[in-house]
Write a structure and sequence with these properties.
101 residues
Amino acid sequence: MDVLHLVLTMALATAGGALGAGGVAWLFWTAFKLVHRPQWGPVLAFVLVLVLSYPWLRTNELAQTLLLFSALTAAVGLVSPSDSAGGEKRSNGGHRFGEGA
């Protein structure tokens, strides 16, 4: 019975952490699309999750998995190109910050 409880707890903590981090990252991604920097959203969501979950990190599996999945979504937000964020074309020929010919 203890093994079943452990497996169920870990499965729910993993699913809850993934859904929670994904939801917060999506919410911040959508909000930061308004200022044309959606890739900043998951990074700031990770910082928010880190600050809010810090008191529970040692004892709560859900807080630990939420922080883990928030870090993963922040990493994806950092490496994703800006063009794929909104699908809009750049006015300077597709170059970032006016570089190139």
